[in-house]
Amino acid sequence: MVAPEQLAGSAVAVIDVLRATTTAIAALANGAREVLPCLTIEEAHKRAARFASGEALLGGERGGLAIEGFDLGNSPLEYTPEVVAGKSVVLTTTNGTKALLHCRAAAEIVLAAFVNLSAAAEFLSQAARKRGSSIDLVCSGTDGQVTREDVLLAGGLAAAIAAEGNWQLSDSAAIARDAWQQVSGTASGEELNARLLPALIASRGGTNLCGLGMQADIEFAAQVDRFSLVPRFEAQAQSIVVA
Ligand code: MLT
């Protein structure tokens, strides 16, 4: 992964399609007040303890499974309006929250997933144009390895951003865009989701989730542009809120 100091001044999208960024977007779309990313389970407990009873929820995973004593796992399907509306969600995941905190030197940090692809692309290109900065697409991957589900989204973002303006793509962004275009073709709407789903299922994150019986989470993550919101990470407050 890119060194933190290389991101200084940049507009960054943090990507963890399966599932951290998809889940944080779902939580905010369903009315959570904020999402507070934490590196460790201990830190998550400490952060949640600062809230009055009933104001915060503990969510996340280790090895894909819910953490003992936590309110919620890392399935976006758990973060319904009935559960999260008006609450602060303290979230710790294996790779996604780590990648997010890794990017804290960037000028602008947003969370991207297929469920907010177009909104995230538009936000990034506007933010970067306003600042005259570059855009970095940071893939969380799994245990330091690049994963296809994240590269496909990086490609979708690169394609959308490049289509909108005169952006020069790096070789890695162009490779990701080509991978995305091979999956998406010219499809849109339900047809696009149907093309994306098997690619996500076959990815590393998808294979892990299928092994845990969590295929429904992959189906949720494969809904392109289900939401139009963009979560923004406020590095000072260490809080993710709707931009
Ligand atoms: C992660 O951060 O590594 C993912 O969220 C893993 C998962 O959802 O199981």
Keywords, separated by commas or semicolons:
alpha/beta, 3-stranded parallel β-sheet, binds D-malate
What this model shows, in words?
The protein is 43% helix and 17% strand. With 243 residues, the chain is α/β, with parallel strands linked by helices. The protein has a 4-stranded mixed beta sheet with strand order 2-5-3-4, with helices on both faces. A 3-stranded parallel beta sheet has the order 6-1-7, sandwiched between helices. Strands 8-9 form a two-stranded antiparallel ribbon. α5 (117-131) crosses α6 and α6 crosses α7. The longest helix is centred in the middle third of the chain and has 17 residues, at 148-164. The radius of gyration is 17 Å and the shape is globular. 49% of the residues are buried. The mean pLDDT is 96.
Question: Summarize this, please?
Answer:
With 243 residues, the chain is an alpha/beta fold. The chain is built from 10 helices and 9 strands.
Write the layout of secondary structure elements.
Layout: E1 11-15, H1 20-29, E2 34-37, H2 41-49, E3 56-62, E4 65-66, H3 81-84, E5 88-92, H4 96-102, E6 108-112, H5 117-131, E7 135-139, H6 148-164, H7 171-184, H8 189-202, H9 204-211, H10 215-221, E8 231-234, E9 239-242
Parallel strand pairs: 1-6, 1-7, 2-5, 3-5
Antiparallel strand pairs: 3-4, 8-9
Helix pairs in contact: 5-6, 6-7
The site of D-malate (MLT) has 11 residues, from loops.
